[in-house]
Design a protein that fits this description.
about 375 residues, alpha/beta, Rossmann fold, seven-stranded parallel beta sheet, six-stranded parallel beta sheet, about 15% strand
């Protein structure tokens, strides 16, 4: 029996405002290369600039057009055509030309099998962090996925059960795909690199979260105040874009609060850094800390697991799903408990597993990630 050729398509997002989404797509697409599947043919629809960027990570069939280019005249024309005819005729042309039979991580498309991705349900549980227009947009988008997609992918059991409970989605149309980030081990350097570039001292606590409200940065200041009273000296090293979209005020409020509470010496704010530097900062940290109030499947935590780091995580069910007994947890709104756990974990000896062992385990995780995704694809053929 001849196996049916699967022509799989991704419409790569042009926006760079969410680094987590970009890392997710790069990792998923590049992991498929590890399988060397003869029946899977992957197409990536994107702009010429995005192709140049992606070629560093992915060797796939690129379909390049100005119709996919952010703010181009052709994209505006495509939107006008979509508005007039109530469907994306330009995109449908590219689908037909390339004989696409499955489209993944995009909107449902009539006549083609569709796989849609719901990263998390943060807007449902933290409504006060979103304007009404964004709440309505997300609900409308997710309900479209649930009604019209052939498969909905979520990243965790936590999201899966909440989607079933609150959105009443059918079990058979939902799949869990745990995310594994893409890591280039050749970019890891010794600690002197960080010391010289950022003037860092060893044994720092690293918080790589972007400055969004739900990332809960303020608990760090409250904990620093408590540590200061005990005369315990620790250093929080924090990275993240100071102007992360609609939450740009979060960073300014955070900086002001550090100054007002006179805990400046406890913080090193490095701003936006390259992903390679993020990985180096994780690898050389004493503690990797994620105080977040909500996660779908934390990239930070996955990176910490890969490097076998000591992790201090907020008591989210998804954090416990990701790490089980491989991390220490604290109540997400309890700075006193966080301060105590920092002191407790700081006394532990630093450990650095052999890179060869880390690489071996990482490759197994990446292959499993790709295989699990391929199973989802094959279930639709």
């Amino acid at each position: 029996m001849v196996q049916k050729k699967i022509n799989l398509c991704f419409v790569y997002p042009e926006s760079n405002t969410w680094t987590g989404e970009d890392n997710y797509f790069k990792s998923l697409l590049s992991s498929l290369s590890l399988l060397k599947s003869k029946k899977l043919n992957v197409h990536i629809f994107c702009s010429i600039e995005k192709k140049k960027y992606l070629l560093k990570f992915i060797k796939k069939n690129f379909v390049v057009s100005a119709f996919f280019e952010k703010n181009s005249t052709f994209l505006i024309l495509r939107k006008i055509i979509k508005l007039i005819f109530k469907k994306d005729l330009v995109l449908e042309y590219f689908f037909k030309k390339n004989k696409i039979n499955i489209i993944s991580h995009y909107l449902p498309v009539h006549g083609i099998k569709s796989i849609c991705w719901i990263p998390d349900l943060q807007h449902f549980f933290l409504k006060n962090f979103f304007p009404n227009i964004e709440l309505k947009r997300r609900d409308s988008l997710f309900n479209n996925y649930i009604r019209n997609a052939d498969k909905v992918i979520v990243s965790s059991k936590d999201t899966y059960f909440n989607l079933k409970k609150y959105y009443k989605i059918n079990n058979t149309r939902t799949a869990i795909l745990n995310f594994v980030p893409i890591i280039n081990f050749s970019e890891l350097k010794n600690f002197n690199y960080l010391k010289n570039k950022y003037n860092l001292q060893p044994n720092y606590i690293y918080v790589p979260n972007q400055f969004w409200m739900h990332k809960n940065h303020n608990i760090l200041i409250q904990s620093a105040i408590l540590l200061k009273k005990k005369n315990d000296k620790y250093k929080f090293v924090i990275t993240g874009n100071p102007s992360s979209g609609s939450d740009s005020s979060v960073y300014l409020d955070f900086v002001r609060s550090i100054t007002v509470n006179k805990v400046d010496k406890y913080f090193d704010l490095l701003g936006f850094v390259s992903y390679a530097d993020v990985l180096n900062l994780i690898f050389h940290s004493k503690i990797l800390l994620n105080p977040s109030l909500f996660e779908g499947w934390s990239t930070t935590v996955e990176e910490g697991k890969i490097f076998n780091k000591k992790m201090l995580l907020s008591d989210l069910s998804v954090h416990k799903e990701q790490c089980s007994n491989k991390a220490i947890y604290f109540q997400r709104n309890n700075p006193n408990e966080l301060a105590k756990k920092i002191i407790q974990l700081s006394k532990a000896r630093n450990t650095y597993p052999k890179i060869s062992i880390i690489k071996k385990n990482y490759k197994k995780s990446r292959i499993l990630f790709a295989k699990n995704y391929l199973k989802i694809i094959e279930s639709l053929v």
